[in-house]
């Protein structure tokens, strides 16, 4: 059997809000094999983003273990975790988070610049993604010159340009109309069909039901995990 890409074991996360304790995660365990396609669903405040941020090394559980591709991310220091995040994890958010002053092509290229890839190889990879995602004629546009759907396609290209092990998308269609949502889901699913592990947090039952595996959260707990 192959190594799980995600092995989260009994994770707990508690936030202190004033003198209250808010549970983001309660004893959450999740095992994900390479190439899986999961949807995480549940009401607002149920812990979906906390779970995704934990998987994506943007947040650390207060207790519990986490192995990412067999590496102990739970015990890793901050620098090592940042390296794992840069190299192995792609993130896509509801509000895109593109760099406003950079063009579409420059936004996509940025992670490769940070990784120190030579320019010729960078440009080749960026051009190929622009082309694949229907953005070739938008390469030099800045984010404010792009539609929501185009911005999210740029954000997805930026997330996968480093060829990560998994793509984590937190409400990626939450700010898009129906047509743009369909485009974005199509691109995410094509990436998954080529082998990328895909996890989508969504409120939209039509999108959630497309995934091969549904995880439902309530009050910081996983209350369902399986094919719907
Ligand atoms: P969801 O994404 O399902 O809407 P979240 O994971 O964002 O839920 O939040 C789960 C719970 O944890 C909520 O009650 C939320 O208010 C709380 N929470 C999340 N992040 C923080 C934080 N940084 N500080 C305090 N409370 C937080
Ligand atoms: Mg959320």
What does this protein look like?
This protein starts with 5 loop residues before the first strand and ends with a strand. Helix content is 34%, strand content 29%. Helix 3 (104-115) packs across helix 4 (119-132), helix 3 (104-115) runs parallel beside helix 5 (148-160) and helix 5 (148-160) packs parallel to helix 6. The mean pLDDT is 96. The strands form two sheets. Strands 6-7-8-3-9-10 form a six-stranded mixed β-sheet, with helices on both faces. Strands 2-1-4-5 form a four-stranded antiparallel β-sheet, covered by helices on one side. It has 228 residues and is of the alpha/beta class. The protein has helices spanning 48-55, 78-88, 104-115, 119-132, 148-160, 178-193, 205-208, and strands spanning 6-17, 20-32, 37-41, 63-68, 71-72, 89-93, 166-170, 197-201, 213-218, 221-226. Strand 7 (166-170), helix 6 (178-193) and strand 8 (197-201) form a beta-alpha-beta unit. The site of adenosine-5'-diphosphate has 12 residues, from strand 1, strand 2 and helix 1.
For the structure shown, list the relevant keywords.
alpha/beta, binds magnesium ion, 228 residues, 6-stranded mixed β-sheet, 4-stranded antiparallel β-sheet, binds adenosine-5'-diphosphate, 34% helix, 7 helices
Mean pLDDT comes to 96
The first-to-last residue Cα distance is 24 Å
> Strand order across the biggest sheet?
6-7-8-3-9-10
User: What would the principal axes of the Cα set say about the shape?
Assistant: globular
- Please count the beta strands (DSSP E, at least 2 residues each): 10
Low-confidence region ranges:
none
- By secondary-structure content and strand pairing, the structural class works out as alpha/beta
* Attached small molecules: adenosine-5'-diphosphate, magnesium ion
- Fraction in beta strands: 25-35%
The tally of helices reads 7
